[in-house]
Protein backbone atom coordinates (compact mmCIF):
# COMPACT_ATOMS: atom_id res chain seq x y z
CA UNK A 1 0.00 0.00 0.00
CA UNK A 2 1.03 3.57 -0.60
CA UNK A 3 0.25 6.95 0.95
CA UNK A 4 -0.17 8.29 -2.58
CA UNK A 5 -1.93 7.11 -5.74
CA UNK A 6 0.58 5.41 -8.03
CA UNK A 7 0.40 3.12 -11.05
CA UNK A 8 3.20 0.87 -12.24
CA UNK A 9 3.38 -1.31 -15.34
CA UNK A 10 5.10 -4.52 -14.23
CA UNK A 11 5.03 -6.49 -17.49
CA UNK A 12 3.79 -6.14 -21.04
CA UNK A 13 2.77 -8.56 -23.77
CA UNK A 14 2.13 -6.67 -26.98
CA UNK A 15 -0.19 -3.83 -25.97
CA UNK A 16 -1.45 -5.71 -22.89
CA UNK A 17 -0.17 -4.51 -19.52
CA UNK A 18 0.19 -6.24 -16.17
CA UNK A 19 0.31 -3.51 -13.57
CA UNK A 20 -0.53 -2.41 -10.08
CA UNK A 21 -2.30 0.61 -8.63
CA UNK A 22 -1.16 1.46 -5.10
CA UNK A 23 -3.18 3.67 -2.77
CA UNK A 24 -3.77 4.01 0.97
CA UNK A 25 -6.66 1.52 1.19
CA UNK A 26 -4.89 -1.19 -0.78
CA UNK A 27 -3.25 -2.30 -4.00
CA UNK A 28 -5.18 -3.12 -7.16
CA UNK A 29 -3.74 -5.78 -9.43
CA UNK A 30 -4.36 -4.97 -13.08
CA UNK A 31 -5.94 -5.96 -15.37
CA UNK A 32 -8.71 -5.79 -12.78
CA UNK A 33 -12.42 -6.52 -12.76
CA UNK A 34 -14.47 -4.41 -10.35
CA UNK A 35 -17.71 -6.01 -9.11
CA UNK A 36 -20.55 -3.50 -9.23
CA UNK A 37 -21.88 -2.49 -5.83
CA UNK A 38 -24.61 -0.18 -7.10
CA UNK A 39 -26.29 0.79 -3.85
CA UNK A 40 -23.56 -0.10 -1.38
CA UNK A 41 -23.95 -3.84 -1.98
CA UNK A 42 -22.69 -6.32 -4.54
CA UNK A 43 -26.08 -7.92 -5.08
CA UNK A 44 -26.56 -11.39 -3.54
CA UNK A 45 -23.05 -11.42 -2.07
CA UNK A 46 -21.44 -10.87 1.31
CA UNK A 47 -18.50 -8.47 1.17
CA UNK A 48 -16.13 -11.04 2.66
CA UNK A 49 -17.07 -13.40 -0.19
CA UNK A 50 -16.32 -10.67 -2.74
CA UNK A 51 -12.91 -10.11 -1.17
CA UNK A 52 -12.12 -13.83 -0.90
CA UNK A 53 -12.73 -14.26 -4.62
CA UNK A 54 -9.86 -11.88 -5.35
CA UNK A 55 -11.54 -8.50 -5.71
CA UNK A 56 -9.19 -5.64 -4.89
CA UNK A 57 -11.74 -2.91 -5.60
CA UNK A 58 -15.49 -2.54 -6.07
CA UNK A 59 -17.63 0.08 -7.78
CA UNK A 60 -20.27 2.24 -6.12
CA UNK A 61 -22.88 4.26 -7.99
CA UNK A 62 -23.21 7.96 -7.30
CA UNK A 63 -26.68 8.27 -8.81
CA UNK A 64 -28.26 5.49 -6.77
CA UNK A 65 -26.50 6.37 -3.52
CA UNK A 66 -27.39 10.06 -3.77
CA UNK A 67 -31.06 9.07 -4.07
CA UNK A 68 -30.98 6.38 -1.37
CA UNK A 69 -29.86 6.72 1.37
CA UNK A 70 -28.31 10.07 0.39
CA UNK A 71 -24.65 11.08 0.22
CA UNK A 72 -24.85 13.32 3.28
CA UNK A 73 -26.31 10.46 5.33
CA UNK A 74 -23.57 8.07 4.19
CA UNK A 75 -20.99 10.69 5.21
CA UNK A 76 -22.56 11.03 8.67
CA UNK A 77 -22.40 7.26 9.02
CA UNK A 78 -18.66 7.19 8.34
CA UNK A 79 -18.47 7.00 4.55
CA UNK A 80 -19.19 4.20 2.14
CA UNK A 81 -16.32 1.97 3.30
CA UNK A 82 -17.59 1.91 6.86
CA UNK A 83 -21.25 1.83 5.83
CA UNK A 84 -20.83 -1.20 3.55
CA UNK A 85 -18.02 -2.80 5.56
CA UNK A 86 -15.56 -2.76 2.63
CA UNK A 87 -12.27 -1.26 3.87
CA UNK A 88 -10.55 -1.60 0.49
CA UNK A 89 -10.53 0.74 -2.55
CA UNK A 90 -13.85 1.88 -4.01
CA UNK A 91 -14.38 3.58 -7.36
CA UNK A 92 -17.53 5.66 -7.77
CA UNK A 93 -18.91 6.57 -11.15
CA UNK A 94 -20.19 10.10 -11.65
CA UNK A 95 -23.86 9.23 -11.99
CA UNK A 96 -23.97 10.62 -15.51
CA UNK A 97 -24.77 7.36 -17.27
CA UNK A 98 -27.69 6.62 -14.95
CA UNK A 99 -29.03 10.16 -15.28
CA UNK A 100 -29.06 9.73 -19.05
CA UNK A 101 -30.45 6.19 -19.08
CA UNK A 102 -32.84 5.98 -16.09
CA UNK A 103 -34.36 9.44 -15.90
CA UNK A 104 -37.43 9.78 -18.08
CA UNK A 105 -37.25 13.57 -17.80
CA UNK A 106 -33.89 15.38 -17.89
CA UNK A 107 -32.43 18.60 -19.22
CA UNK A 108 -28.76 18.96 -20.09
CA UNK A 109 -27.27 22.45 -19.92
CA UNK A 110 -23.77 23.90 -19.67
CA UNK A 111 -24.19 24.20 -15.90
CA UNK A 112 -25.09 20.52 -15.49
CA UNK A 113 -28.12 18.27 -15.77
CA UNK A 114 -31.52 18.55 -14.14
CA UNK A 115 -33.34 15.25 -13.82
CA UNK A 116 -36.31 13.59 -12.19
CA UNK A 117 -35.57 10.65 -9.89
CA UNK A 118 -36.78 7.28 -11.14
CA UNK A 119 -37.45 6.38 -7.48
CA UNK A 120 -39.89 9.05 -6.33
CA UNK A 121 -40.08 11.64 -9.11
CA UNK A 122 -38.23 14.32 -7.13
CA UNK A 123 -36.25 16.82 -9.22
CA UNK A 124 -32.47 16.93 -8.70
CA UNK A 125 -29.62 18.95 -10.16
CA UNK A 126 -26.24 17.40 -10.92
CA UNK A 127 -23.36 19.68 -11.88
CA UNK A 128 -19.74 18.58 -12.29
CA UNK A 129 -19.01 20.18 -8.93
CA UNK A 130 -21.95 18.46 -7.22
CA UNK A 131 -20.94 15.08 -8.65
CA UNK A 132 -17.46 15.44 -7.18
CA UNK A 133 -18.94 16.69 -3.90
CA UNK A 134 -21.19 13.62 -3.64
CA UNK A 135 -18.29 11.27 -4.41
CA UNK A 136 -16.28 13.05 -1.73
CA UNK A 137 -19.08 12.59 0.80
CA UNK A 138 -19.10 8.89 -0.08
CA UNK A 139 -15.30 9.00 0.49
CA UNK A 140 -14.49 6.92 -2.58
CA UNK A 141 -10.87 6.42 -3.60
CA UNK A 142 -11.24 6.84 -7.37
CA UNK A 143 -13.79 9.38 -8.56
CA UNK A 144 -15.07 9.88 -12.09
CA UNK A 145 -15.77 13.12 -13.91
CA UNK A 146 -19.35 13.94 -14.84
CA UNK A 147 -19.89 13.33 -18.54
CA UNK A 148 -22.75 13.17 -21.01
CA UNK A 149 -23.18 9.67 -22.36
CA UNK A 150 -25.45 9.62 -25.39
CA UNK A 151 -27.08 6.69 -27.11
CA UNK A 152 -25.65 5.16 -30.26
CA UNK A 153 -26.21 5.61 -33.10
CA UNK A 154 -26.52 9.41 -32.98
CA UNK A 155 -25.77 12.17 -35.52
CA UNK A 156 -22.13 13.23 -35.61
CA UNK A 157 -22.97 16.80 -34.57
CA UNK A 158 -24.77 15.52 -31.47
CA UNK A 159 -21.87 13.20 -30.58
CA UNK A 160 -19.44 16.11 -30.98
CA UNK A 161 -21.57 18.44 -28.86
CA UNK A 162 -21.74 15.91 -26.00
CA UNK A 163 -18.01 15.16 -26.25
CA UNK A 164 -17.05 18.85 -26.09
CA UNK A 165 -19.41 19.42 -23.16
CA UNK A 166 -17.86 16.43 -21.36
CA UNK A 167 -14.39 17.94 -21.84
CA UNK A 168 -15.51 21.22 -20.28
CA UNK A 169 -17.09 19.31 -17.42
CA UNK A 170 -13.82 17.37 -16.96
CA UNK A 171 -11.98 20.66 -16.42
CA UNK A 172 -14.54 21.71 -13.82
CA UNK A 173 -14.36 18.32 -12.09
CA UNK A 174 -10.57 18.57 -11.95
CA UNK A 175 -10.82 21.95 -10.21
CA UNK A 176 -13.52 20.70 -7.82
CA UNK A 177 -11.51 17.58 -6.97
CA UNK A 178 -8.38 19.60 -6.21
CA UNK A 179 -5.45 17.87 -4.57
CA UNK A 180 -6.51 14.84 -2.56
CA UNK A 181 -3.45 12.78 -1.56
CA UNK A 182 -3.97 9.07 -2.04
CA UNK A 183 -7.06 9.53 -4.21
CA UNK A 184 -7.61 10.01 -7.92
CA UNK A 185 -10.04 11.54 -10.38
CA UNK A 186 -10.31 9.93 -13.81
CA UNK A 187 -11.41 11.65 -16.99
CA UNK A 188 -13.74 9.92 -19.44
CA UNK A 189 -13.12 9.74 -23.18
CA UNK A 190 -16.30 10.30 -25.17
CA UNK A 191 -17.00 10.59 -28.87
CA UNK A 192 -19.43 7.80 -29.67
CA UNK A 193 -18.41 5.57 -32.56
CA UNK A 194 -16.40 8.31 -34.28
CA UNK A 195 -12.65 7.70 -34.27
CA UNK A 196 -11.81 11.35 -34.96
CA UNK A 197 -13.87 12.60 -32.03
CA UNK A 198 -12.55 9.90 -29.72
CA UNK A 199 -8.98 10.87 -30.56
CA UNK A 200 -9.71 14.56 -29.93
CA UNK A 201 -11.30 13.72 -26.58
CA UNK A 202 -8.41 11.46 -25.54
CA UNK A 203 -5.77 14.03 -26.45
CA UNK A 204 -7.58 16.85 -24.63
CA UNK A 205 -8.01 14.76 -21.48
CA UNK A 206 -4.39 13.59 -21.59
CA UNK A 207 -3.31 17.24 -21.64
CA UNK A 208 -5.15 17.79 -18.34
CA UNK A 209 -2.66 15.58 -16.51
CA UNK A 210 -5.22 13.46 -14.66
CA UNK A 211 -4.32 10.38 -12.61
CA UNK A 212 -6.26 7.96 -14.81
CA UNK A 213 -8.45 7.76 -17.88
CA UNK A 214 -11.62 5.90 -18.77
CA UNK A 215 -13.25 5.10 -22.09
CA UNK A 216 -16.99 5.64 -21.73
CA UNK A 217 -20.03 5.48 -23.94
CA UNK A 218 -19.36 1.95 -25.20
CA UNK A 219 -21.06 -1.39 -24.42
CA UNK A 220 -24.36 0.37 -25.08
CA UNK A 221 -25.56 -1.99 -27.79
CA UNK A 222 -23.01 -1.40 -30.54
CA UNK A 223 -21.33 -4.44 -32.19
CA UNK A 224 -18.15 -5.67 -30.52
CA UNK A 225 -16.09 -4.77 -33.58
CA UNK A 226 -17.12 -1.12 -33.19
CA UNK A 227 -16.00 -1.11 -29.56
CA UNK A 228 -12.67 -2.70 -30.45
CA UNK A 229 -12.12 -0.27 -33.32
CA UNK A 230 -12.66 2.65 -30.93
CA UNK A 231 -10.18 1.15 -28.46
CA UNK A 232 -7.63 0.74 -31.25
CA UNK A 233 -7.97 4.46 -31.97
CA UNK A 234 -8.17 5.65 -28.36
CA UNK A 235 -5.70 3.69 -26.22
CA UNK A 236 -2.53 4.84 -28.02
CA UNK A 237 -3.51 8.47 -27.34
CA UNK A 238 -3.77 7.91 -23.58
CA UNK A 239 -0.68 8.22 -21.34
CA UNK A 240 1.17 4.93 -21.05
CA UNK A 241 1.97 5.57 -17.38
CA UNK A 242 -1.66 6.00 -16.29
CA UNK A 243 -4.38 3.35 -15.79
CA UNK A 244 -7.01 2.89 -18.50
CA UNK A 245 -10.54 1.90 -17.56
CA UNK A 246 -13.18 0.62 -19.99
CA UNK A 247 -16.51 1.43 -18.37
CA UNK A 248 -19.38 -1.06 -18.29
CA UNK A 249 -17.54 -3.92 -20.03
CA UNK A 250 -18.33 -6.68 -20.21
CA UNK A 251 -18.43 -10.28 -21.40
CA UNK A 252 -15.39 -12.49 -20.82
CA UNK A 253 -14.63 -12.26 -24.55
CA UNK A 254 -14.88 -8.45 -24.44
CA UNK A 255 -12.42 -8.41 -21.55
CA UNK A 256 -9.86 -10.66 -23.26
CA UNK A 257 -9.91 -8.59 -26.45
CA UNK A 258 -9.83 -5.26 -24.61
CA UNK A 259 -6.88 -6.29 -22.42
CA UNK A 260 -5.01 -7.09 -25.62
CA UNK A 261 -5.56 -3.46 -26.66
CA UNK A 262 -4.17 -2.00 -23.45
CA UNK A 263 -7.14 -1.72 -21.04
CA UNK A 264 -6.37 -2.15 -17.33
CA UNK A 265 -9.72 -1.92 -15.51
CA UNK A 266 -13.25 -3.16 -16.11
CA UNK A 267 -16.65 -3.15 -14.41
CA UNK A 268 -19.93 -4.72 -15.44
CA UNK A 269 -23.21 -5.83 -13.86
CA UNK A 270 -23.21 -8.88 -16.13
CA UNK A 271 -21.90 -11.55 -13.72
CA UNK A 272 -24.19 -10.51 -10.87
CA UNK A 273 -27.26 -9.79 -13.00
CA UNK A 274 -26.85 -13.01 -14.96
CA UNK A 275 -26.53 -15.00 -11.73
CA UNK A 276 -29.80 -13.63 -10.44
CA UNK A 277 -31.46 -14.71 -13.69
CA UNK A 278 -30.19 -18.29 -13.79
CA UNK A 279 -27.15 -17.91 -16.06
CA UNK A 280 -23.75 -19.26 -15.03
CA UNK A 281 -20.36 -18.35 -16.52
CA UNK A 282 -17.89 -21.21 -16.52
CA UNK A 283 -14.64 -22.16 -18.22
CA UNK A 284 -16.79 -24.29 -20.55
CA UNK A 285 -18.93 -21.31 -21.54
CA UNK A 286 -22.33 -20.08 -20.36
CA UNK A 287 -24.84 -22.47 -18.80
CA UNK A 288 -28.52 -21.54 -18.57
CA UNK A 289 -29.83 -23.29 -15.46
CA UNK A 290 -33.42 -22.57 -16.47
CA UNK A 291 -33.16 -25.22 -19.19
CA UNK A 292 -34.99 -28.48 -18.47
CA UNK A 293 -32.00 -30.58 -19.53
CA UNK A 294 -30.36 -29.76 -16.20
CA UNK A 295 -33.24 -31.13 -14.10
CA UNK A 296 -31.49 -34.45 -13.39
CA UNK A 297 -27.87 -33.53 -14.12
CA UNK A 298 -25.83 -34.46 -11.06
CA UNK A 299 -22.65 -32.76 -12.30
CA UNK A 300 -21.50 -29.51 -10.67
CA UNK A 301 -20.95 -26.44 -12.79
CA UNK A 302 -17.20 -27.02 -12.67
CA UNK A 303 -15.68 -29.86 -10.69
CA UNK A 304 -12.22 -28.22 -10.90
CA UNK A 305 -13.26 -24.83 -9.52
CA UNK A 306 -12.06 -23.55 -6.15
CA UNK A 307 -15.46 -21.91 -5.63
CA UNK A 308 -17.89 -24.03 -3.56
CA UNK A 309 -20.85 -22.73 -5.56
CA UNK A 310 -19.33 -24.11 -8.76
CA UNK A 311 -17.88 -27.30 -7.29
CA UNK A 312 -20.23 -28.56 -4.58
CA UNK A 313 -23.79 -28.15 -5.89
CA UNK A 314 -25.35 -30.22 -8.65
CA UNK A 315 -26.81 -28.61 -11.73
CA UNK A 316 -30.05 -30.38 -10.86
CA UNK A 317 -30.20 -28.57 -7.53
CA UNK A 318 -29.30 -25.22 -9.08
CA UNK A 319 -31.97 -25.78 -11.73
CA UNK A 320 -34.50 -26.50 -8.99
CA UNK A 321 -33.57 -23.32 -7.10
CA UNK A 322 -33.82 -21.17 -10.21
CA UNK A 323 -37.14 -22.65 -11.37
CA UNK A 324 -38.57 -22.36 -7.86
CA UNK A 325 -37.53 -18.73 -7.51
CA UNK A 326 -35.47 -19.50 -4.42
CA UNK A 327 -33.11 -16.68 -3.40
CA UNK A 328 -30.32 -19.18 -2.84
CA UNK A 329 -30.22 -19.89 -6.58
CA UNK A 330 -29.27 -16.31 -7.40
CA UNK A 331 -26.79 -16.23 -4.52
CA UNK A 332 -24.97 -19.37 -5.62
CA UNK A 333 -24.87 -18.45 -9.30
CA UNK A 334 -23.64 -14.93 -8.53
CA UNK A 335 -20.93 -16.42 -6.34
CA UNK A 336 -19.97 -18.75 -9.17
CA UNK A 337 -19.96 -15.96 -11.75
CA UNK A 338 -17.79 -13.58 -9.76
CA UNK A 339 -15.43 -16.46 -9.00
CA UNK A 340 -15.18 -17.14 -12.72
CA UNK A 341 -14.55 -13.49 -13.58
CA UNK A 342 -11.87 -13.04 -10.92
CA UNK A 343 -10.27 -16.33 -11.93
CA UNK A 344 -10.22 -15.12 -15.53
CA UNK A 345 -8.48 -11.88 -14.48
CA UNK A 346 -5.86 -13.82 -12.50
CA UNK A 347 -5.35 -16.05 -15.54
CA UNK A 348 -4.92 -12.98 -17.77
CA UNK A 349 -2.39 -11.39 -15.42
CA UNK A 350 -0.34 -14.59 -15.28
CA UNK A 351 -0.46 -14.93 -19.07
CA UNK A 352 0.83 -11.39 -19.58
CA UNK A 353 3.66 -12.01 -17.12
CA UNK A 354 4.56 -15.18 -19.05
CA UNK A 355 4.36 -13.41 -22.41
CA UNK A 356 1.68 -15.76 -23.73
CA UNK A 357 -1.59 -13.83 -23.60
CA UNK A 358 -2.38 -14.63 -27.23
CA UNK A 359 -1.91 -18.37 -26.72
CA UNK A 360 -3.85 -18.39 -23.46
CA UNK A 361 -6.70 -16.42 -25.03
CA UNK A 362 -6.96 -19.01 -27.80
CA UNK A 363 -7.02 -21.83 -25.23
CA UNK A 364 -9.78 -20.15 -23.22
CA UNK A 365 -11.87 -19.51 -26.33
CA UNK A 366 -11.41 -23.09 -27.49
CA UNK A 367 -12.71 -24.39 -24.17
CA UNK A 368 -15.80 -22.20 -24.55
CA UNK A 369 -16.39 -23.71 -27.99
CA UNK A 370 -16.10 -27.27 -26.68
CA UNK A 371 -18.93 -26.47 -24.28
CA UNK A 372 -20.08 -28.03 -21.05
CA UNK A 373 -20.45 -31.65 -22.09
CA UNK A 374 -18.45 -34.09 -19.95
CA UNK A 375 -15.03 -35.07 -21.24
CA UNK A 376 -14.86 -38.44 -23.00
From TrEMBL:
The question of whether Flavoprotein is a record keyword is answered with no
User: Which GO BP annotation is one of this protein's?
Assistant: tRNA queuosine(34) biosynthetic process
Cite the residue spans of the region called RNA binding.
Answer: 248-254, 272-276
**EC class:** transferase
Q: Which part of the chain is the tRNA-guanine(15) transglycosylase-like domain?
A: 15-368
- Report which superkingdom the organism of origin falls in: Bacteria
- Residues recorded as binding substrate, renumbered to this chain, are 93-97, 147, 190, 217
Q: In which pathway does it act?
A: tRNA modification; tRNA-queuosine biosynthesis
**What keyword terms does UniProt attach to this protein?**
Glycosyltransferase, Queuosine biosynthesis, Transferase, tRNA processing
Q: Where is the active site?
A: 93 (proton acceptor), 267 (nucleophile)
Q: Which Gene3D superfamilies match?
A: Queuine tRNA-ribosyltransferase-like
**Reaction(s) this enzyme catalyzes, per UniProt:** 7-aminomethyl-7-carbaguanine + guanosine(34) in tRNA = 7-aminomethyl-7-carbaguanosine(34) in tRNA + guanine
Pfam families recorded: TGT (PF01702)
Q: What is its EC number?
A: 2.4.2.29
Q: Can you cite an annotated GO cellular component?
A: cytosol
Q: Which family does it belong to?
A: Belongs to the queuine tRNA-ribosyltransferase family.
What is the documented function of this protein?
Answer: Catalyzes the base-exchange of a guanine (G) residue with the queuine precursor 7-aminomethyl-7-deazaguanine (PreQ1) at position 34 (anticodon wobble position) in tRNAs with GU(N) anticodons (tRNA-Asp, -Asn, -His and -Tyr). Catalysis occurs through a double-displacement mechanism. The nucleophile active site attacks the C1' of nucleotide 34 to detach the guanine base from the RNA, forming a covalent enzyme-RNA intermediate. The proton acceptor active site deprotonates the incoming PreQ1, allowing a nucleophilic attack on the C1' of the ribose to form the product.
Q: How does it assemble?
A: Homodimer. Within each dimer, one monomer is responsible for RNA recognition and catalysis, while the other monomer binds to the replacement base PreQ1.
Q: Give the protein name, as stated in the record.
A: Queuine tRNA-ribosyltransferase
Amino acid sequence: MSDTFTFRVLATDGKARRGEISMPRGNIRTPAFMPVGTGGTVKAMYMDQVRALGSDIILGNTYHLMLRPGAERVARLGGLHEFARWPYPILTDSGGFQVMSLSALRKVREEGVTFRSHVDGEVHEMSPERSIEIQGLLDSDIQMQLDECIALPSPEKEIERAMELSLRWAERCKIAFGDQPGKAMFGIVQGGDNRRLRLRSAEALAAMGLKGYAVGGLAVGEPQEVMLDILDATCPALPANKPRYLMGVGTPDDILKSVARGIDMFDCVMPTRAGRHGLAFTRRGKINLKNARHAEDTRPLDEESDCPAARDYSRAYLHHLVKSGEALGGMLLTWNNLAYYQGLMADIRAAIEAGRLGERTAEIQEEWVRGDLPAL
